[in-house]
Amino acid sequence: MSEESASLAIVRDVDAMPKIFTAMGGRFTDLFSSKVGDPSPLVVGSWAPADIQGGTNVVALETSEIKFVTQGRSLWKDESTGKTFSAGVGDAIWIPQGSRSILVEARDLVTFYVQADARVVGQKAIDQVGGINELQLKAAVEKLLGRVKERFISSNPKSQKLHQDAAAVLPGGNTRSVLYHEPFPMVLSSGMGCYVTSEDGRQYVDFVSEYTACMLGHSHPEIAEVVQRTMERGINLGGTSKEEVTLAQLLAQRIPSFEKLRFCNSGTEANTMALTVALNYTKRKKILVFENGYHGGFLGFGKTTLPTTLPFDLVLARYNDTSHAQELIDSSFAAILVEPLQSVGGMIPATRDFLQALRDAATRTGAVLVFDEVVTSRLHYNGLQSFHGVYPDMTTIGKFWGGGFSFGAFGGRGEIMEVLEPNGSAKLGHSGTFNNNVFSMNAGAKACHLITKDKIAEINALGDRLREGINAAGRHACPASPFMRATGMGSVLNVHFDGPLASDLGEAFFFFMLDRGIYVARRGLIALNIMHTEAHVKQALHAVKDFLESIIELSD
Q1: Is 493 helix (H, G, I), strand (E, B) or coil?
Q2: pLDDT by residue (tens digit) across 266-301?
Q3: Distance spanning both ends of the chain, measured CA to CA
């Protein structure tokens, strides 16, 4: 409301009021404003951004503002100094004129703001923020989603039939929940290089790359040759082999914290065994994990812990919040398990300061620091631990290190891994029929030679260009309030949508990209492999720009 006279006004239940304008990835309502021409104008209102993790949008205010946090929590970054600040209920955030701030993280955040400005509320406010109002955006997304989903159904009759057949014998029609989506998942028949082909005969540029595991691309000829030779010598031999020694030596040379290591069948198993080793080594029970962390099907921590999570004594901390983690860690903890970049959590990189603080806390308390590098070891020749110069006590890897076959490994300091020695005092057992299967051992050794420093640098550069291009397209489409952004590092990224229509926008984006012959994960994951080129990145960016332009056009 704008007061033309000096009179008292009260607005009740401010937090319950609808937010009618859009800006900064959220919604706001101006409640009070000085009259136009006031020499010291103020505008006061309530702002509720969408939940954000890994935000990168820089906001440069033309006027000074203070935000009082009334609900939720947030993490802010001052771009000029690089410093980060957390703010929760009862805190005030001062944003002076000319500053450049980034809202890095927001969870259930509601603020009450006071801004040195005077503006007329109503349609003019929408014009000022330069965004699309929510009703226009909702209508546009519904139209676009309807079109691309209808085309998906009509062009994939074989996939639809195969899914119906699968659902008769498999709950959900598959054995990997991540692959399911409505109305039915696309069924793939083959893959070559960075392309996959559906059962309905259409070829797609594959930016899923088997959820980061297919780093070498599909059907790599050198892997195929190794597999053929392996088949000729026997498949299940039931004993140890020289190949597992070779692979162990190669990995120990790559991962600095691998003094000794053991193999298993997946990243899930690797993380489970690493924690088991840490518990036995320290004779303690507590394990520190982080919100939105994912360490396999039995160790996932979103807004709520997965019902399948193993019954460890888990304590949940906030990712990239150094002070919160330091407050929790004491000498009762057996292990600290962290991803140097959260993968399923949205491709959110950890800061070096955060990882170093965990390293220092583990050293101080005697806890075992475990880096889950199942995904992140693709980003640097020696893993992100070497990139940051912060080294854990144990590391887990998986995915692409098996050359396309099931694979996991866990390892660390010799004295910790000693608990697995059959003649040692702990005598912790660890077996698995396929832990050292000859396909994974031989293909894994070849993968170590194929994943070179140059190849890693090449696809990291391509990934950076793709991520920067997506963010530039998002800002161009809606300058004042971008609703699409990408986070990540190097060859892995995640596309995010902000605001109340985030889910519908994500679904529309997924089907739109399929319609353009580009396969990305339903949750927005994009992972490059060594077969991708600059041309594939340009093709993807062209499709992203078309997606955003389609929404803008349908909003008119």
Answers
A1: strand
A2: 999 999 999 999 999 999 999 999 999 999 989 999
A3: 28
Query: How sure is the predictor about 71, in pLDDT bands with cuts at 50, 70 and 90?
Result: confident
Position of tokens 């000794």? 260
Task: Give residues with Cβ within 8 angstroms of 295, minimum separation 6.
Answer: 267, 268, 271, 289, 337, 339, 372, 374, 396
Sign of CA dihedral 45, 49, 54, 56: negative
> How many CB atoms lie under 10 A from the CB of residue 175?
9
Domain architecture of the chain: domains with CATH: 14-129 (2.60.120.10), 139-215+454-555 (3.90.1150.10), 222-450 (3.40.640.10)
Strands 58-60 and 84-88: unpaired
| CB burial readout 302-319, b (16+ within 10 A) else e | eeeeeeebbebebbebbb
Is the link from the previous residue into 183 a cis peptide, with omega within 30 of 0? yes
> Of the ranges 101-105, 116-120, 224-228, 282-286, which one carries the lowest mean pLDDT score?
116-120
- Nearest Cα neighbor of 373 from 346, 352, 351, 400 is 400
Q: Are strands 286-290 and 333-338 parallel, antiparallel or unpaired?
A: parallel
Contact partners, residue 282, CB within 8 Å, separation at least 6: 334, 335, 366, 367, 368
* Alpha-carbon span 130 to 398, nearest angstrom: 45
Taking the model in full, what pTM does it have? Answer: 0.83
Helix (H) or strand (E) holding 260: strand 260-264
Q: How many helices (H) and strands (E) does the chain have?
A: 14, 27
Which residue in 384, 383, 404, 347 sits closest to 520, CA to CA? 347
Q: Which of 273, 320, 271 is nearest to 294 (CA)?
A: 271
**Which residue intervals of 347-501 are DSSP H helices?**
352-365, 384-388, 414-417, 438-450, 453-477
Query: Quick one: 55 exposed, middle or buried, by C-beta within 10 A (0-12, 13-18, 19+)?
Result: buried
Q: How many CB atoms lie within 10 A of CB 31?
A: 17
Extract the tokens encoding 535.
């041309």
Rounded CA-CA distance 155/178 in Å is 22
Contacts of 432 (CB under 8 A, 6+ apart): 264, 265, 269
List the structure tokens of 553: 């056009």
Rounded-to-integer distance, Cα 271 and Cα 293, Å: 12
